[in-house]
Predict the structure.
Amino acid sequence: MYNAVDIARYVIERCSRQNKTISNLKLQKILYFIQAEFLIAKHQPCFAEKIQAWDFGPVVPEVYYTYRMYGGANIPCIGKSGVSRLISARDREILNGIIDEGMQYSASALVDITHSQSPWIEAYNRPGYNNEITTDSIKRYFEED
């Protein structure tokens, strides 16, 4: 299992290598889909950090706060972090597929997609604020889909 901030760095670096830009909002949705893919393909989470249901969809708070200084702007890739060495070749394949697929959509389209899915809907509509979207709910939803 990886650290969500390391996975985020990997996503940002891959986008940069492909001359694609990524905002914190878009990054958050891609992390959600990465977690879903790992739960289905590998039967385990990609990262241990919790995903929460925020107004604009799923968010990994640790990653959000790491990159919030960029607001709605694109996150720059500041050199190579070497994070890819921490990730197995097979896991990089999974990540690359999800990143490449996710980058075809705008951030607002990804928000709309996640807002239509039961893991976010159920967590968001529970009493309280920024409720957890559990890995069980994500796995259940994507197994049925």
